[in-house]
Amino acid sequence: MPPDAGLKKVxxxxxxxxxxxxxxxxxxxxxxxxxxxxxxxxxxPYHRPALSKKLLTGDVHRAGIDMAPQNEFDxxxxxxxxxxxxxxxxxxxxxxxxxxxxxxxxDGLVIASGADVRRWPGGPVPDGVLTLRTVDDCLAIxxxxxxxxxxxxxxxxxxxxxVAASLxxxxxxxxxxxxxxxxxxxxxxxxxxxxxxxxxxSHGVDVRVGVDVxxxxxxGHVKAVRLSxxxxxxxxxxxxxxxxxxxxxWLWGSGIKVDQRDKGVVCDATGAAEGTTGVVxxxxxxxxxxxxYREHLRIEHWDHASRQGITAARNLLAGPEDAQQYDAxxxxxxxxxDVKLQLVGVPTGYDTVTVVEGDMRAGEFVAxxxxxxxxxxxxxxxxxxxxxxxxxxxxxxxxxPRLQKQPA
Length: 408
Hints:
FAD/NAD(P)-binding domain; Enolase-like, domain 1; Reductase_C; flavoprotein; FAD-oxidoreductase/Apoptosis; Pyridine nucleotide-disulfide oxidoreductase
C-alpha cells in the first residue's frame, strides 16, 4: 500500500517498543517525509521485560537488552526529551529538550509515550525504597543488592512477582506483599493466582496476601515495612510494584480524548485517536477499541505494543479510509523460576475458568476462561500450548474449548 501523499511531517512521541516499531515501520513502508522521534530516556530503545528478570539477576549484560534496529532510517532523534504539550489548531508538538523548549509541526502524529511507574501514594519515602521502570532503575537496584540483603517487594502483579522470583533466585531473603488474596489475582483471577502464590512460597518467598502496607520504618534509610495487620517486616531494600499510569499529562487541553479512569488515549479499532485526524496511538498509552472483545482495552504487554506500533504507523500512512482494524488476540508471557506463564486473550470479566489440559498439582497445565458460554482467554504453563487455542478465541468457540486433534 503506497504511503499517503499528503503526509509530509510526522512526529513520533515515545521511544519504547511501540514508538520504535512505529518509527521504523514508517520508513519501511515508504514514508520519505520529515520524521521527528522524541524519547524521554537518554539511551536508545531497549527491551523492557528483561529489567525484572535477566538484567536484574545479571544473566544478561546491559548491552544485551538493546533493540537492534532492523533497518537504519533517517530521522531527527531527540533523546532525553519530553513532549510537554500539543496544539491541534497549529498542529504542533511542544518538546522540552534539555534546557530549551521547541515546537515541531506535524501532519501525522504517533502517540506512544508509554506509561510511568506509580509512586508511593503516602508521600516521601526513606532511602532504599525504590521503583523499577527504566534500565537505570534496574542498575540502581542491582548496585544496592548485597549477599545478605533482606528485600521487601510491594505489589503482587507481574512486576512484583517477577522481581521476587529473580531476587529469590539470587539467594536473597524476599518478602512479597499483596493486598489481594492471591498473587496475580487482578491479571489471572484468584483461581489461577493461587497457583503462583503457592509457587513463590515453595521457593522460599515469604508471601503476605490480603494485607496493606501502612508505612516504612527508618531514619534516613529504610529498616522495616509496617503492615496493616500491625506486623513489621525487616528490610534493607524495598521495591514498589504498584503498576503504571499512561503518560498523557502532555495532552491536557489538546482536545485529544483521554479516558478519565485509566488515563489512556481513547482510540477506534484502527488506532486513530477519537475526534482527530492524522493522530494515532499505540502501546501502554493507547486504549483501543477491540472488535473481538467489543470494548476499549489498554494492554501493557510487549507483544501487544510491538504489533500496535506497526499497525498504527501503517494506518497513519494509509489514511482513515483505508486503515485496517487491529484485532489481534493479545499474547503475554512471564518467566518466574522454572515456570513460564503464557496467556492468550483477555480474561477480564470471565465467569468461569477450568483446566482443560494437564494438572495444576503437577505444575504443567492449560486453563481456559469463559464468559457467557464463549472462550475468551487461555492460560498455560506448557510451552507454547496456549497458542493452539488462539483460533478458538477468535472464533468465539463454546466453553470449554476443544482442540481438533491432528491425525497421526
